[in-house]
């Protein structure tokens, strides 16, 4: 208990890492609810991996001596963020375009994208041994090295994402629930889809850069799944998913810090524990009734 | 003036017309039944009317009572809406009010509540307001969908197979509801249907979709026994 109080103090040495994880834990499920409702959960698996491939590609460029692209460490990170956003954005555009055409097998496309992204990540790292350490850190979810500047930039962007999700909730729900109705009401379904996917792309690419693909996948999918059986409307669904994500991040960070374990798997483990608890409680309530 | 005007329109998806050379007008205050076999183009015709699909060739003109496009209230096939969404019947009906506001605007709480409650009451779904939409029966869902369509203050109510998979008693009460709404609100109604018997007394006009053609005429003429046997003879 003392340790928990200790890590919550503002002078805690890793407070940026803790607050960063919790903010991502709060915000990613707000985006993830739309993955679940649109039955695009597999996008949540593939896109973080695509984003990681983008980061590996940025490290590869630097390994090839393209110093004009990135001189200082901060510039290196910015290049990685740009590459991550570019890869994620292109993948979302391609998936959305194929989805709209309605041909082929959606799960097959996502499977191919996931395999390609994994293969790309490994090859980009293999061609640039110097990037291996960074990539390994990324996959383990090493947020501890986050700088003051990056932390504040991350807070701004994730704050903006959360604001957009709540501000445009009625439009996002309408176009996700009944596209034809949205069109008859004069809404541009394409424009709202693009905005939603842009928010998704931003959350994933910045999140993966900060805590790695595993944590982002976990936050996109697991808290919304745990929240869904208890939801009594979209706002309660979003808020509960967000709370469970933030709580999992805090609990995961605490266990990771006290047991000296890698952050990413512990945070995902904590999120899965909330899901199991939610399912157990639901089943118990069903039996009592 | 007619509400909807098809002028030598070819309707379909991609480049393949499902219905060719469609040419008729939907008069105001009419109750139009869109009938035909499976895959004959009934839903394509309705979706083109709503502006969800552009005609491949020709023109589809829509004239509102006020300047601009007419307001539609749309009731889709009930299976199309995913029950995974954690929405109450009230939440679903509220969506109809979005036609009155810009994307970032919201109707004020009491104004919105009053309007939605009124529409739910008109559709005979007041007691369903707080229940999860996914828990409702087929007939109850259709009532909520009709309430949602009414909340858009429509000039034209467009329904896609609203009676499919619903028991006979509920079908009768839904048809009585549609008749009442048409009269009280002065609506034009377009309804895709698979069947002829239960609804035939409601229709003022009928569109038969058959063998790539769509033809509109007065219900009495289009549902005459000679015409029916002609259509059903062509059933694939």
Class based on secondary structure composition and strand pairing of chain A: mainly alpha
What series of H and E elements makes up the topology of chain A?
HHHHHHHHHHHHH
**How would the global form of chain B be characterised?**
globular
Radius of gyration of chain A: 19 Å
The fraction of residues in strands of chain B falls at: 25-35%
Q: Which two chains share the most extensive interface?
A: A-B, 26 and 26 residues
Assembly type: heterodimer
| Separate helix tally of chain A | 13
Short précis:
The complex is a heterodimer of chains A (289) and B (236). Chain A has 289 residues and is mainly α.
Task: Write structural notes for this entry.
The complex is a heterodimer of chains A (289) and B (236). With 289 residues, chain A is mainly alpha-helical. Helix content of chain A is 82%, strand content 0%. In chain A, helix 3 packs antiparallel against helix 11 (213-227) and helix 4 (73-101) packs antiparallel against helix 5. In chain B, the strands form two sheets. In chain B, strands 5-6-7-3-8-9 form a six-stranded mixed β-sheet, with helices on both faces. Chain B has a three-stranded antiparallel β-sheet with strand order 2-1-4, with helices on one face. Chain A binds chain B through residues 36-37, 39, 167-168, 170-171, 173-174, 176-178, 180-181, 183-187, 228, 231-234, 236-237, and chain B through 47, 50-52, 72, 74, 76, 80-82, 84-88, 91, 95, 98-99, 103-104, 106, 132, 148, 152, 158.
Please name the defining characteristics of this protein:
heterodimer; A: 289 residues; mainly alpha; 0% strand; B: 236 residues; alpha/beta; 6-stranded mixed sheet; 3-stranded antiparallel sheet; 9 strands; 31% helix
Layout of helices and strands, plus pairs?
The complex is a heterodimer of chains A (289) and B (236).
Chain A: H1 2-8, H2 15-37, H3 41-63, H4 73-101, H5 106-126, H6 131-140, H7 148-167, H8 169-177, H9 179-184, H10 189-211, H11 213-227, H12 234-259, H13 263-288
Helix pairs in contact in A: 2-7, 2-10, 2-11, 2-12, 3-4, 3-5, 3-6, 3-10, 3-11, 4-5, 4-10, 7-10, 8-10, 10-11, 11-12, 11-13, 12-13
Chain B: E1 4-13, E2 16-26, E3 31-36, H1 42-50, E4 57-62, E5 72-75, H2 89-94, H3 109-122, H4 138-151, E6 156-160, H5 168-185, E7 188-193, E8 205-210, E9 213-218, H6 219-222, H7 225-233
Parallel strand pairs in B: 3-7, 3-8, 5-6, 6-7
Antiparallel strand pairs in B: 1-2, 1-4, 8-9
Helix pairs in contact in B: 3-4
